[in-house]
Amino acid sequence: MKKLVILAPRAYAFFDPQNAMARELGIGGAEVQLCLLARDLADRKAADVHIVVADCGQGDQLVRDGITLHVGFSFRDSSVRAMTDLMSCLWRVHGDVYIQRAIHEVSGILAIVFRFSRAKFVYMVAHDGETDNSPIIYRNRFIRLGGWLVFRLADRVVVQNQYEWDQLWKRVRASRLAMLCKGVVVPRNEVPAKSEYDAVWAGRCVAWKRPDLFLRLAARSPDLRFLMLCPKGPEPTPYQARVRTHAARLPNVDFVDFVSPGDMCRQLSRGRAFCLTSKQEGDWPMVALEAAAVGVPVVSYGINPGLLIDRYGGGALCNGRVGEMEAWIRRLRNEPSVWSAMSQAARRFIASERDIRVCADRLLAIL
Question: Domain spans of the chain?
Fold first, then answer.
């Protein structure tokens, strides 16, 4: 059995959503996806799974859901101290395979370290922008250097779609490339959409996810009700403050600043439609897949990673038009037969294409 070590510093909230420090750090879709894969592999005893997380006061080592959690470092420490502690932790854990997802300043250092070890280093792309040098991702020269190193030194590079593959094939040998889409837990029983809200939005409060666009949609539709699940981004910014202030001024918007991963599907099921406003993603974001899993149709402002809308009819693409988003939300509200057909189509897409167990088996094959 392989010893699999996953680096996911912000993942502790997945296992202990009541921990105040973990809530403050937040957790994104990349971490949730890694945790779902880890939990499925651990449940089936397909691998000896370990996750390295940040210090949230939980103790150096503990076991949750059959997964051993290790404290790697503290975000409160200096960069040098944090890096030293992380390397010490990785040395102690001593895995066969190490996995990291989403480009970070530390990615390049990890690629160099594992290049000279017997362990395999697998890097998983989390966003299209990592492969096409988007300024959304490469905000400074340290991240750019990290990306340059990781794509050249990682033993395997796992992409999410053909676009990312096409962007990387000149830089990464085909033998090192693999493709794996995101997956979610397929509900055993149908989770009824309660339809308390006409539309729901979920995502970190960062500019490229465009929560302000959802608020603009709410402002032009005062007769509709909107739910906004919007945790803070990695660092407090003036943009986050503006979004929260704008949301507070709209009487038809309910704003929630933290949702535990285990409660996300229930919260999403409260809406008739899920609104996706991102400028760019690598795949359907986790929240869109979780919405589809509970039968909430996805209304996308401009991105369409495929299948959900085109083949299954579980959502609508609005071609960059806010007015078209509003029209779809109203149609799903006023035409129950249309909503029912799209809801069932969204569930079929998840069951057929995005079962986390199938994704975990594919990951094992890649490793």
Answer: 3-184+355-366, 199-353
What tens digit of pLDDT does each residue of 185-198 get?
Answer: 988 766 555 679 99
Give, in order, the Cα–Cα distances in Å from 293 to each of 83, 191, 209, 304.
38, 9, 21, 17
Matching CATH topology for 3-184+355-366 and 199-353?
Answer: yes
Nearest to 110 by CA among 24, 270, 119, 48: 119
Residue/partner pairs of 159-162 with CB below 8 Å, 24 or more apart: 159/125, 159/131, 159/282, 160/125, 160/126, 160/282, 160/283, 161/128, 161/282, 161/283, 161/305, 161/306
Helix-then-strand count for the chain, H and E: 14, 14
Read off the tokens for 17: 């959503």
Is the domain covering 199-353 a CATH 3.40.50.1820 domain? no
Domain 3-184+355-366 in CATH 3.40.50.720: no
Strand order from edge to edge, sheet including 61-64: 61-64, 67-73, 48-54, 3-7, 97-101, 120-124, 156-159, 177-179
Cβ distance 96 to 2 under 8 Å? yes
What are 84-117's pLDDT values in tens digits?
999 999 989 989 999 999 888 888 888 898 888 8
Give, in order, the Cα–Cα distances in Å from 326 to each of 64, 118, 214, 220, 225: 42, 54, 10, 9, 12
- Cα 60 from chain centre: 26
Structure tokens at 269: 């099921």
| 251 to 212, 224, 242: CA distances (angstroms) | 16, 10, 16
Q: Output the DSSP codes for 284-313.
A: S-HHHHHHHHTT--EEESS---SSTTTTT-
